[in-house]
Amino acid sequence: MHSEPRLTAYIIRRLMQSAAVVLAMSVIVFLGLNVIGDPVYLLIDPQADQAEIERTIRRLGLDQPIYIQYFNFITNALTGNLGTSFVHGTSALKLIVDRMPATLEIAIAATLMSIVFGIPLGLYAGLKPDNFFSKSIMATSILGFSLPTFWVGIMMIMVFAVMLGWLPSTGRGPTATFLGITSSLFTIDGLRHIAMPALNLALLKISLVIRLTRAGTREAIHQDYIKFARAKGISSSRIVGVHLLKNIMIPVVTVLGLEFGNLVAFSVVTETIFAWPGMGKLLIDSIQSLDRPVIVAYLIIIVLLFVIINLVVDILYSVLDPRVRIGEKSA
Amino acid sequence: MTFSKSVLAAVVAAGLALAAAPSAIAKDLRMALSAEPSAMDPHFHNLTPNNALTSHVYERLVHFDEKQTPIPGLATSWKTIDENTWEFKLRTGVKWHDGSPFTADDVIFSMERAPNVENSPGSFALYVRGKTFSKVDDHTVRVTTKEPYPLMPNDMATIAIISKKAATGAKTDDFNSGKAAIGTGPFKFSEFVKGDRYVVVRNDDYWGGKPKWAKVTIRPIKTGPARVAALLAGDVDVIEEVPTTDIARLQGDAKVSLGQGLSNRVIFFHMDQWRDESPFITANDGSKIKNPLKDVRVRKALSKAINRPAIVDRLMEKAAVPASQFLADGFFGVSKKLKPEAFDPDGAKKLLAEAGFPNGFKLTLHSPNGRYINDARMAEAVAQMFTRIGVETKVETMPPAVFFNRASAGAGGNPEFSFILVGWGAGTGEVSSPLKSLVATFDKVKGMGTANRGRYSNPELDKVIDQALATVDDAKRGELLAKASEVAIEDVGVIVSHYQLNTWATRKGLSYTPRTDEYTIATSVSEQ
Amino acid sequence: MSVTDVGTVPTPAARPAAQTPFQRFVADFTESRLATIAFILLIVTMVLALIAPWIVPQNPYDLAQVDIMDSRLKPGTPAASGKYTHWLGTDGAGRDLVSAMLYGLRISLAVGVMSGVIAMALGAAIGLIAAYAGGRTESIIMRIVDLQLSFPAILVALMLIAILGKGVDKIIIALVTVQWAYYARTVRGSALVESRKEYVEAARCLGLSNARILFRHILPNCLPPLIVVVTVQTAHAISLEATLSFLGVGLPQTEPSLGLLISNGFQYMLSGEYWISFFPGLVLLMTIVVINLVGDQLRDVLNPRLSK
User: Of C69, C266, C272, which is closest to B310 when you measure between CB atoms?
Assistant: First the structure.
């Protein structure tokens, strides 16, 4: 085990690197979006005369040279103000934070789904690799990450909402508050609404978990401790349920942890199709309307989210597996 | 709840969910929009979805009926006192949602606030500037201008009247939270969850009679097919902007009824007529040529090359009407003489040859992608038609925000493109709006030709427009506007293509009265 | 095709077998019937895409040949000219779907392969340099790689396209940007392993130049894992391009890729004119599946840990 100061130093170094990333990224996005332009001509009443256009440009602070705009942005950002949305006129940070629960709940639901479906199927495919059903699982899992998400999404709406009428087609259901958390996961109607988009988002991850579990199972099954347990006459369900699963879970959980950020990012597509009021849809809308403050704020928040997830995963990993030494060659 | 229990609960719930059928509660209405309103503050942004949403809660002095004819709103009557003064008589006995009475003070307050909203990306200043509002008594307001101003009632149909008591010092966020969202309209504010849902409930004390719907929930569903799916699945009762591709199918569906009507929007093309060499026009070998669009024969040829009936039939699935001018028949100020240009590829080729381009030239057509109904596909279809008469046309589409920026002020503050597809919705519901903005000579100081992205200029036309804008007499102004339209169209200042039809779909048992202004509002939904 | 390159890799220690390495590789690969079929299908797909301009009845990118009057024709309708039949119907702009799909396949594959190859070249070079240079250079390079990998590809691509604008070249730039890091990491990993092996020591002792050792000796031995990454990343790239097109930031309207054909056809999903997006969807799906199947088998065959 490593000593405390070393861990602290490691965390500080990671945080400083992240700050550098955030800074670099904000410059790139800021300048990049500035080159493409601003949404004034899209947003303003087309009958507006030049005077009114100029007044609006001033009101949005777009009359300043770009380096002054950036300087203002940075000084404000240091006080926690990430700017005001051009389109919505309210704080970009608040816009995103307001929509974050919707995105997080869909990402959490998708992660749960990938565990619930992925691990049993992967275990089965790993234990009986030559079985027909196992082969079908593997073939289908290839479909899982070959199908474009948007295509599956609209197909699901067609089948489950329009043709069968089982589930609501789009949108987020009513929310309820449980243990201080307000989420649509706590109402029945909310669960009905989240089922399809979460599955849509989960498809890729289910395939991933199936493959990881299968690979892990196949590797572990030949290892001495399993052979030893078999020789000792421990029941096979106990071997699988306790010894095998425990060993497979570490890589699966690690990968799912790292992939959580990807789920949040990929929700851009799912949210667009299912009219899910989350951050992803806000990002797409903001990109289309060149709402720079919201785009920059979104990226900063996502980067922070990633940094935190990676850091937590790394630290957990080093705690779980003493062979990994943090700070030497961190991944 | 432990983890495993909550998973169990989720599984059970999912099972129940499969069994439960979606049920609509009577007298509640659920509507799906194609665009997302950005605020409950009626002065924040002059934008169709915002205006439509806020008109549930707020009212204007003058209302537009579904054909955009001005009718009494919070003002019961209006008249001109002298050339430069209008007087509005306010409705008596109207109460704000908080119970306080509506008076002239609220009107003056609203007119002062409208042009000065913090962070507004597109304010209503245009409709207030140059006007001085004064209170005569509690129920009379006078408006004075420097010059005669015939469009006063139309302008007054844009500004929502808000409560002085509730909204003094209020910011846009205070409206969104409901704190300042006190109106006089048929519905009261209930909930505003940005990007998710907007809920209003019935105002039982409404002066115009009790509204039919106890609660109206409005949701944005931007993707067309998803919107239709939501209606078919019974998740919403009304949807706007039915994708043209689905109209035929929905017409045959017994569970759905459609409401379709003409809009105030014309789809047309601006042509670069101010540069001697246009950046996106070259000879067939790629070399620079003199701007052919300055020649009226070339413009006319391009207009003749467009097969308008085919566009209406094949592309718009009949949800459009071939256009002859800026607004369809029935609007104020349209010309009775103009007819849509007939499809005539041979005539077009002949005109091109006469103008010195027997083998045509190369052109890039720029279009926004997702601003107007089927815009990108429309650009593609027209490029096909131009290519057939020898004008080899490339299409470049871009997101609307990028497009309008570059099309308006891309090249050193000037329009960047040579030939663009755009649309114009006449917010005022009459012809002076497109004439003044699209074909009048661009003039920063006078505020004319503000959206004239081809910089077409015709002094004769300018004279007629100026004259019309200063004529208060309706009949005389109508004639002048018609004449101006004729001049602009005959000189092919722009090429008009079609008027959009707006299509709403409702579940069976309801119907939607189509509106030319594209607003989706609960009061236009009726039970059959 | 890159697959055959594997056989020419000089193996450091010749194995005592009657088969050449290539023959063994082929034997291993064809052990899975599914993968073999997938490989054949992949070759067929690529050939079809290559020769598309000479076999399709219409050039769907030539606006003079496409007519809006022919839009949304049912599969099997004869063309207006009477010279051929729209076997799979036409799309919303009047393009013959068979022609449009093959041309779209060309673009999709070109985007996938081009971005894959460029990203590989770039990534491999950077990875090799990192592995060989070591020290500070390596840690800086690998830090950048880590950062790049920790960003979701779709977000980076979205941002880049939003900033760069539309076009095939821009899509490729965006895809290379999101992909190079995978190659860099893979190559560095295997190069580190290789550079500790005896043959490299031997080469050093012989006084061969660094560059020579790097490119002639180490790189070829890093190829197997690289090939696996290439196949997987190509499939990713094709799928990502389709998604970007769906989100409205992809390719030009008049020259649709498969992805753009699908997202254009998306509008017709509820209208009963299923063929407009169904067939392109099928072809896209098939292409990605066969690439993944081939990649999967390659991984199994080339993975020393699973070799028997």
Answer: C69
Could you tell me the residue ranges of all domains in chain A? 4-78, 97-320
- Tokens standing for A235? 């029941």
CA of B444 to nearest chain C CA: how many angstroms apart?
Answer: 31
CA–CA distances in Å: residue A171 to residues A102, A168, A268, B398: 10, 8, 14, 28
Homologous superfamily of A97-320: MetI-like (1.10.3720.10)
Mean of pLDDT values over A234-257: 76
pLDDT tens, residue by residue, C218-262: 777 777 778 878 888 888 888 888 888 888 777 888 889 988 888
**pTM summary value:** 0.86
**Chain C CB within 8 Å of residue A21 CB:** yes
Task: Tell me if chain C has a CB within 8 Å of the CB of B249.
Answer: yes
- Smallest CA-to-CA distance from B373 within B283, B464, B260 is with B260
Q: How many CB pairs under 8 A join A and B?
A: 192
Mean pLDDT, chain C, as a whole number?
82
By the CB < 8 Å criterion, does A279 face chain C? no
pLDDT along chain B (528 residues), means of 10: 44 43 62 94 95 96 94 96 95 95 97 94 92 96 94 95 95 94 96 93 93 94 90 93 92 93 96 95 94 96 96 93 95 95 96 95 94 93 94 91 88 89 92 95 90 95 95 94 97 97 95 94 92
* ipTM score for this prediction: 0.85
Interface test with C, best of A14, A22, A26, A142 (most C CBs within 10 A): A142
Compute the mean pLDDT over every residue in chain A, rounded to the nearest whole number.
83
**CA of A49: which chain B residue's CA is closest?**
B447
Residue A267 pLDDT greater than 90, yes or no: no
pLDDT one-digit tens code per residue, C66-118: 888 888 888 988 988 778 889 999 998 889 999 999 999 999 999 999 999 99
* SS3 readout for chain A: CCCHHHHHHHHHHHHHHHHHHHHHHHHHHHHHHHHHCCCHHHHCCCCCCHHHHHHHHHHCCCCCCHHHHHHHHHHHHHCCCCCECCCCCCEHHHHHHHHHHHHHHHHHHHHHHHHHHHHHHHHHHHHCCCCHHHHHHHHHHHHHHHCCHHHHHHHHHHHHHHHCCCCCCCCCCCCEEECCEEEHHHCHHHHHHHHHHHHHHHHHHHHHHHHHHHHHHHHHHCCHHHHHHHHCCCCHHHHHHHHHHHHHHHHHHHHHHHHHHHHHHHHHHHHHHHCCCCHHHHHHHHHHCCCHHHHHHHHHHHHHHHHHHHHHHHHHHHHHCCCCCCCCCCC
- Interchain contact, A148 vs C163, CB within 8 Å: no
Distance (Å, whole) CA B288 – CA A115: 63
Nearest CA distance, A262 vs chain C (angstrom): 5
CA distance A83 to chain B (A): 11
Q: Do A269 and C292 touch (CB under 8 A)?
A: no
Reduce the secondary structure of chain C to three states and give it as a string. Answer: CHHHHHHHCCCCCCCCCCCCHHHHHHHHHCCCHHHHHHHHHHHHHHHHHHHHHHHCCCCCCCCCCCCHHHCCCCCCEECCCCCCEECCCECCCCCEHHHHHHHHHHHHHHHHHHHHHHHHHHHHHHHHHHHHHCHHHHHHHHHHHHHHHHCCHHHHHHHHHHHHCCCHHHHHHHHHHHHHHHHHHHHHHHHHHHHCCHHHHHHHHCCCCHHHHHHHHHHHHHHHHHHHHHHHHHHHHHHHHHHHHHCCCCCCCCCCCHHHHHHHHHHHCCCCCCHHHHHHHHHHHHHHHHHHHHHHHHHHHHCCCCCC
